């Protein structure tokens, strides 16, 4: 990784970075990862963008909407079955199994009515999250092993962008067309998407080669499923403790704002269709641009130095949204324009920060032994989800209790905590 200070000349090299990323993607390795991360983002898009708007228009409280985030629970537990993915069978077989499970859960969900079969729908979505979380372990393990050091920036860009494209497709995209195609057909289309990626994964040469290596390695490896011993080995990897603290706090304030600001706009005159367009689709384009910028910058500058800059910029964008909440008038086109602008800015910085964060996690994991790399990365990723999920469950209650304005003050304070933590980053990750 190159080091140095930021300067304006980096803007001129962005087209070259994009062209290089496209060239490498067409070679197959990043294309495979992009497809796998894309379908992995579908369950998140359904639950983060589609269902909250649908439930709010049905009259549910903020507290109840936030509690639906409990369906993400399998993502917290994935570190428990990560050793199974690391030590038994191959990553290719795990990928095929889990994506078949997600295709099946989509078909089941399409037969259930959200109004009359909420419990059954929750079970189906829980199954979808379970399959997606196991798939995540396998994909991360593949990424750590096949990406060279000079490809980490590109790989993490593909990871974040692919995941967000899946989220946009299943969230904002489906929210926009749901009234036209209907609930059942919508999930049937999703199952077809999974089948297409399953077929591509089955014939991917990169996975076939990796499977042979993994099979030979597992024959000579002594399996260990003792959770305490595995945890001890994970924690012995250098810089893991600092990275744990980082992934727990780096998204808290941003997560609260992204979750609640669209609902604030919904309560103040903007329609579900407008929010689906601007928050679910257009803002995600800005998030993807930010993620691509983050991948570009990690190939040239110190990751933690970049993180400090973008944390401060994110804090300023949160302050802008807090101001808008205090003065917003839903009848003013100027206010609506400012609100849309703030959403796009927030997603742009959020996308950049996410790519930088996953680059830090992968740098830390690469210092682990190859036989626990997927488990180590899954451990960090699980804590990353835990940090976001635990606060997401509470954020609706906070808004119901103290209102939007004071809640956004809390979000800013949490963002300051993240800034202070990154200033204590170890030199090996900076």
TrEMBL record:
InterPro entries: AmpG_permease/AT-1 (IPR004752), MFS (IPR011701), MFS_trans_sf (IPR036259)
Record-given protein name: Major facilitator superfamily domain-containing protein 3
Species this protein is from: Erpetoichthys calabaricus (Rope fish)
Pfam families: MFS_1
UniProt entry tagged with the keyword Lipid metabolism: no
Lineage of source species: Eukaryota, Metazoa, Chordata, Craniata, Vertebrata
Family per record: Belongs to the major facilitator superfamily.
Gene: mfsd3
PANTHER family on file: MAJOR FACILITATOR SUPERFAMILY DOMAIN-CONTAINING PROTEIN 3, SOLUTE CARRIER FAMILY 33 ACETYL-COA TRANSPORTER -RELATED
Gene Ontology cellular component terms for the protein in this record: membrane
TM region(s), chain numbering: 30-55, 61-82, 94-112, 183-203, 241-265, 277-297, 309-328, 348-365, 377-398, 404-423
Membrane topology of the entry: Multi-pass membrane protein
Any one GO MF annotation of this record: transmembrane transporter activity
Gene3D superfamilies: MFS general substrate transporter like domains (1.20.1250.20)
Keywords: Membrane, Transmembrane, Transmembrane helix, Transport
């Amino acid at each position: 990784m190159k080091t140095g200070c930021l300067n304006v000349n980096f803007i001129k090299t962005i087209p070259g970075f994009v062209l290089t990323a496209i060239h490498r993607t067409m070679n197959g390795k990043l294309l495979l990862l992009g497809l796998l991360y894309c379908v992995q983002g579908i369950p998140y898009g359904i639950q983060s963008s589609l269902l909250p708007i649908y439930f709010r228009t049905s009259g549910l409280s903020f507290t109840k909407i936030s509690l639906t985030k409990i369906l993400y629970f399998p993502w917290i537990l994935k570190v428990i079955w990560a050793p199974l993915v690391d030590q038994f069978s191959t990553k290719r077989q795990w990928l095929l199994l889990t994506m078949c499970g997600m295709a099946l859960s989509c078909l089941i969900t399409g037969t259930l009515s959200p109004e009359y079969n909420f419990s059954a729908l929750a079970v189906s979505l829980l199954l979808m999250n379970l399959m997606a979380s196991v798939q995540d372990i396998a994909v991360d393990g593949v990424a750590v092993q096949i990406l060279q050091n000079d490809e980490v920036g590109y790989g993490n860009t593909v990871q974040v962008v692919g995941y967000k494209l899946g989220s946009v497709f299943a969230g904002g995209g489906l929210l926009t067309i749901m009234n036209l195609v209907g609930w059942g057909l919508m999930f049937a289309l999703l199952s077809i998407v999974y089948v297409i990626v399953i077929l591509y994964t089955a014939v991917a040469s990169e996975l076939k080669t990796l499977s042979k290596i993994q099979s030979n390695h597992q024959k000579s490896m002594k399996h260990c499923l003792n959770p305490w011993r595995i945890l001890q080995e994970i924690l012995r990897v250098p810089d893991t403790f600092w990275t744990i603290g980082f992934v727990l706090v780096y998204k808290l304030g941003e997560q609260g704002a992204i979750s609640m600001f669209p609902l604030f706009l919904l309560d103040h005159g903007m329609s579900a269709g407008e929010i689906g367009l601007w928050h679910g689709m257009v803002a995600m384009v800005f998030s993807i641009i930010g993620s691509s910028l983050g991948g570009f910058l990690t190939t040239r500058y110190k990751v933690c130095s970049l993180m400090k800059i973008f944390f401060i910029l994110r804090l300023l964008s949160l302050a802008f949204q807090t101001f808008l909440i205090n003065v917003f008038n839903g009848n003013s086109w100027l206010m609506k324009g400012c609100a849309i602008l703030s959403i796009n800015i927030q997603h742009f910085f959020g996308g950049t920060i996410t790519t930088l964060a996953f680059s830090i996690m992968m740098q830390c994991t690469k210092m682990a032994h190859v036989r626990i790399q997927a488990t180590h990365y899954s451990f960090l990723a699980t804590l990353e989800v835990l940090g976001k999920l635990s606060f997401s469950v509470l954020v609706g209650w906070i808004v119901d209790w103290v209102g939007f304005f004071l809640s956004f003050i809390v979000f800013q304070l949490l963002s300051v905590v993240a800034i202070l933590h990154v200033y204590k980053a170890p030199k090996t990750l900076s």
